[in-house]
Design a protein that fits this description.
about 210 residues; 2 strands; elongated
Amino acid sequence: MIAAIRSRWGRFATDHPELSKFLVFFVLSNGVTVLQLALMPLFRWGFDTFTDLVNVDFRVFPIGSNVDGSQYYMFDYAAGELPAGGGGLAYFLAVQITLLIAQVINFFAQRNITFKSNTSIWRAAFWYAIAYVVITFLAAAAQGFYKAPIYELLISTWGWGGTGETIADVVTMIINAAISFWVFYPIFRVIFRQVPEQDGADERADAPRAS
């Protein structure tokens, strides 16, 4: 049974190389998203339970004004529990640590499984890190539009309290993951290349070696 599935998948991958890569990318990305959905509330609980970081204001990089005229921040995590506050530094760290863990795992999984890249891992990691930082800033800027309304709706308007907060965590993480999914795929196609074996060996030889 397994051998037959592998054989069929092998033929499909040979006939449709780009589509097969996208499907593997999709499956792995969703697996990483599930990990994020599990970790983010766990980190939030840990910070809220064992630290006072939820009451530490973290609002940086002002980039304009909201509709009501108030300052708009790229990273807007006002002190205080959601939805009245923005979750403070605790929420920021929970989101960013979760994303960092997920993206490190995603890097190796996509490089080795999806794209089977044989070029320099150091060069790929360098460009991946740059892409990660850029996407983090873009996702943070976008989050300012949907984060507060989602938490307000689920916690206060619908009166779901703690359950609504957990669901809001899931929804915001899914949106973050979706942004990463559509932006990272074309980037991966560039940085995770396959080259003829001799060229791949030359690229690896250029990479720094551990002493």
